[in-house]
Amino acid sequence: MRTQLIRKLGVPLLAGSMVLSFSASATEGLYSVEALLDADVYDADGQEIGEVEDILLSDDMSIHSLIIETGSLLGLGGREVVAERGTFTVRVELEDDNEAFDDIDYEVHMEATQDAVKALPEYNEGWWNQTKESLSQAWENTKDTSQSAWESTKEATSSAWHNVREGVDSMGDKAKEATNNN
């Protein structure tokens, strides 16, 4: 049974698959999802624009997108937008320059200005369904292309093997003929 193309993350730790940047003393390769949720988000100018509300994963469990709540005041009136992988970086901020397990905080830095962030797609059922369909179609195209490549490779290999076998048989016949003539 096929699993959903995009899943909400429900595990406490995530082996990173995002484009990330870190301070020199941070452990690379292992990131806490719990710490990333509610992390402050900054625009390209360094202005705080919201916080991470959710994390979406693709079928291969890599990060597909972050859901960022922007423009809320005391948790009200905000808008949830979708920031796809590649449009942000995550920086590890260590409290008091101490690399203690509980003292790691994250900041998400967008490559977009505040105006560009406002233009990001809103996270809603329409976006979800459209993205799910697009990813499903991409998978079908990849599957069809892979199947076609496999069939072509199998056919070419079979043809090459047949040609080699005929060449060897021909060489054997010529060797036999040459031996009989001598």
Question: Mind explaining what this structure looks like?
Answer:
- This protein is of the alpha+beta class and 182 residues long.
- Helices cover 36% and strands 26% of the residues.
- It contains 3 helices and 9 strands; from the N terminus they run βββαββββββαα.
- The protein has helices at 33-36, 114-118, 125-181; strands spanning 7-8, 13-14, 31-32, 40-42, 48-57, 63-70, 79-84, 88-94, 104-110.
- Strands 1, 4, 5, 6, 7, 8 and 9 form a 7-stranded mixed sheet that branches. A two-stranded antiparallel sheet has the order 2-3.
- β5 and β6 (63-70) form a beta hairpin.
- The termini are far apart.
Question: Any idea what the radius of gyration is?
Answer: 27 Å
How much of the residues is beta strand, in percent?
A: 25-35%
Q: Which of globular, elongated, flat, extended, rod-shaped describes the shape? A: elongated
Query: Which structural class is indicated by helix and strand composition?
Result: alpha+beta
Contiguous runs where pLDDT drops below 50 for at least 5 residues: 1-27
Average pLDDT level: 75
Quaternary structure state of the chains depicted = single chain
Percent in helix: 25-40%
Order of helices and strands: EEEHEEEEEEHH
For the report, how would you describe the main beta sheet?
7 strands, mixed
Record field, number of beta strands:
9
CA(first)-CA(last) distance:
69 Å
| Count of discrete alpha- or pi-helical segments spanning 4 or more residues | 3
